[in-house]
Specification:
By secondary structure, the protein is an all-alpha fold. It is 75% helix and 0% strand. Helix 5 crosses helix 6.
């Protein structure tokens, strides 16, 4: 379970490897203050949707041989849970915390790559943590590029952010395949 968490947080980060939430991370990193509530809402909606979807897939869709409909079922479950949580947050705090693409892609990733309900929970939480870990990194990259951008105004800042994230993903991918060159003694 610990190795699965480490794998999905760093080496198979849903943001870096699959691009899930890459745009959101670049937008959110402008202001990292006040992100606790939206992150908690997103995390709860992801975990509850994954768990409920997995139970419905395992107990209903597989016996009826309708597994091909699991993306639709997981989408419906996610929308219901997300709308309920969003309503509660808006009523209590008057803030908007909606996020669709990152959450739904993490749900599909967790459902596709899990063997049991514990794997679903671990993969979904780890994938979201990989997104949260990337926010300060993108924030630091943006601040560093802003310093360089002031010195050289013709630099395209958005391209530099994406190039920096590509370099980070390459470094993490290299760490994932280093075992290929090693041989047992």
């Amino acid at each position: 379970m610990i190795f699965t968490s480490i794998y999905y947080i760093f080496f198979a980060s849903s943001v870096i490897l699959y691009g899930a939430g890459l745009n959101s991370s670049a937008v959110i990193s402008d202001s990292i203050h006040g992100l606790f509530l939206p992150f908690m809402k997103i995390m709860f909606s992801i975990v509850f949707s994954c768990m409920l979807s997995w139970l419905i897939i395992k107990n209903l869709l597989i016996p009826l041989k309708l597994v091909a409909f699991y993306p639709l079922i997981s989408l419906l479950i996610f929308l219901i849970i997300s709308i309920v949580l969003e309503s509660v947050v808006r009523i209590t705090t008057s803030r908007v915390t909606s996020e669709f693409s990152l959450s739904y892609l993490i749900i599909l990733l967790a459902l596709n790559e899990s063997l049991n309900i514990i794997d679903v929970a671990v993969i979904s939480v780890s994938s979201f943590i990989s997104f949260v870990v990337l926010i300060p990194v993108v924030y630091a990259i943006k601040k560093r590029i802003a310093l360089v951008g002031n010195l050289q105004p013709h630099v395209n800042r958005k391209s530099l952010i994406l190039i920096s994230i590509a370099i980070i993903s390459t470094i993490l991918a290299v760490g994932n395949v280093t075992w290929l060159g090693s041989r047992g003694s």
